[in-house]
Amino acid sequence: SKQTMLSSSRAALVAAAAKLPRLVTRYGYCTTAAGERQQQKPLSPKITTHPTRNDRAKDPRWKDVDMTRAVDEADVVIVGGGPAGLSAACRLAQLNAEKGTEMRIVVLEKASLVGAHTMSGACLDPKGLVELFPDWQERGAPLHTPVTGDKFYMLTEKRAIPLPLLPGMPMHNHGNYIVRLGNVVAWLGEQAESLGVEVYPGVAAAEVLYTEDGSAVKGVATNDVGIAKDGSPKDSFERGMEFHCKQLIIAEGTHGHLAKHLINRYDLRAGREPQTYGIGFKELWELSEDRWRPGYVEHGVGWPLDSGTYGGYFIYHLNEGSPLAAVGFVVGLDYSNPYLSPFREFQQFKHHPHVAAALTGGKRIGYGARALNEGGVQSLPKLTFPGGCLVGCTAGMINVPKVKGTHNAMKSGSLAAEAVHEAIGSGEIEPTTYEEALRNSWVYKELHSVRNIRPSFHLLNGRLGMFGGMAYTGAVWYFTRGREPWTFSHSGTDHEKLLPAKDCKPKDYPKPDNVLSFDLLSSVALTSTNHDHDQPPHLTLYDDSVPGQVNLSVYDGPSNGSAQLAFTNTSN
Fold this sequence. Notes:
Keywords: Electron transport, FAD, Flavoprotein, Iron, Iron-sulfur, Metal-binding, Oxidoreductase, Transport, Ubiquinone. One of its GO terms (cellular component) is mitochondrial inner membrane. The protein contains 14 helices and 23 strands. By secondary structure, it is of the alpha+beta class. The protein has 2 domains: 71-144 and 180-274 and 379-449, FAD/NAD(P)-binding domain, CATH 3.50.50; 145-178 and 277-373 and 506-571, 2-Layer Sandwich (D-Amino Acid Oxidase, Chain A, domain 2), CATH 3.30.9. Strands 4, 5, 11, 12, 13, 16, 22 and 23 form an 8-stranded mixed β-sheet that branches. The two termini are 38 Å apart.
C-alpha cells in the first residue's frame, strides 16, 4: 500500500542517516540518526532568478550588458489577445470609424498565434458577439454547432441521476453554441486587423511602466529573451521593448501577473472580497461515430469528488466536420485535503460507467488546463486605475454556475473601449466611466443574480457541501433570481481552507489505463508546450523557502494538490 511504501522509504532514510552525521535534503531539512527531522538554516537552493526578486544591478554577470530598450508609442495598448482584449480592440476601431478619430491600437498576445492558447470546446452565449458584430454570420464567425440537447446529472459511484434543467436556470443552454473557442478568438483577431488594429502575437508583456512621478501608468515593457535558467544573460540576450500609451487595457486572463501588480499598487481590492479560484481541465476527444451527438451538452456534479469539494464536469459534442467532443472537469481550489489531486480526479471521473460509455471507442487528441475566477461579483476589484483598466477574466467576469465567461468578457472589453475612447478624447487619465457602465450593463446584472450560488456551498461551515449549494439553487435562486436581500461571503481565501496533512487522509488513485485515463506527462505533451531546458521557469516564487518549510513540512509536499499553494506563492 501507499502507506507501507512511505514507511519503508522513511525507514531507509533513517538507516542511511545512522551512517552519516546527518542527511541533508534539498529542502533545508536534515534527518538525525534518531530519526528526528530538523530544519537547517538556508540550505534550500536558490530557485527564483527573476529580476523582480533578484536585482540585476547587484549581479556581476549583468555588469556590462546593454539594458537599453527600444520605445514605441500608441494611443491604446491592450495586453492579451483573448475574447476580452480583441473585443476591446474591435470596439475601439469601430469608434474610430464612427467618430472620425485616429487612435493607434496595439494588441500584445503572448501566444505564437492568436487563439493558440485557447483550448477548443466551449459552450458560448452569443450575446456579447451579437452586440459587437450584429452581422457576425455574414462575417463568417465560426459558430457551427447550435445546442440541440441539454442534460444535467448527479453522479454516484455507479449511477448517473438526471436532474431537471428548467428554463431560466444558469445551465440552461437553449440558444447557445458549442464552439472551438480558439477558432473564435482567431476570427476576432482577423476582424480586429481588418479594422486597422495592430495585433502582435508571440509578444508577452512583462512589466508595467509608470510616469516619472509614479502617479499613473504610461505603458508596458515586453519580456527579455536569451536568459539562462540560472538567471544569467546568454549570448543571444535581447532586451524587451517599451510600448508607451495613453491608456492601457489589461486583458491577460485569470491571475495575470501585470494585473496582480496593478491591483496591489493601487489597492484595487480595497473593500472587496479576495478572489477565489478553480482549476479546469479539458480534453478534446474524437468519438466513435455511433456515440457522437452533434449539439449535445451535458453538465454534472458528484463522483469522484466528495460532497465537500466544489466541482463538476461538462461534455460538449461539436459539429466541426469530425466527431469531436470536449470533455472537461473543474475543481474549486478551496478544497481542504492536500492529498486531493484535481488532475487525477478528472482522470478517474472518465471511468464512471455513464462517462466511459460515451468515450469508449474514441481517442483523446488534445489536453489543456487553465485557472478560473470563481469569486463572482463579491470579488470584482475596482476596474480602473490612473492610465487604464481591467477587463474579462483579469477582473473575474465568469458566471460560475452558468460555466461561461466569454460573453461577459467580450461585453466588458467593449464597454472598456468606449470609456477609454472617451477618456483619451477628453484628456482624462483614468477611464472612470467604465465601471459605472459595467454596473449598468447586463454583465453586472447577471453576475449579481448568481452571487450567492457559489458561496452557498460553504453554508454552515461547509457541512452541507454540494447538497447545500444545490438545495439553495433550487429552493431560493430559482424563485428569487438573485433578488434575495442578502449576499453570502466566500469566507476567506482558498489556501486558508487547506488543512495540514496530519489532519487528512491520503487518497489512492487508480493507475491510468491509457485508454480512458492518462498520466500527467503524456497529457502535457499534447499541449504543444515547448520550453528550452536552459530557460527560467515561467513562475516566480515570492519565497524560495516555502517548498520545504511549508509545502513539505506542513502539507506533506502536496504535488498531488499543489494548485492552492502555487497560487499563494507565485508572483509571475
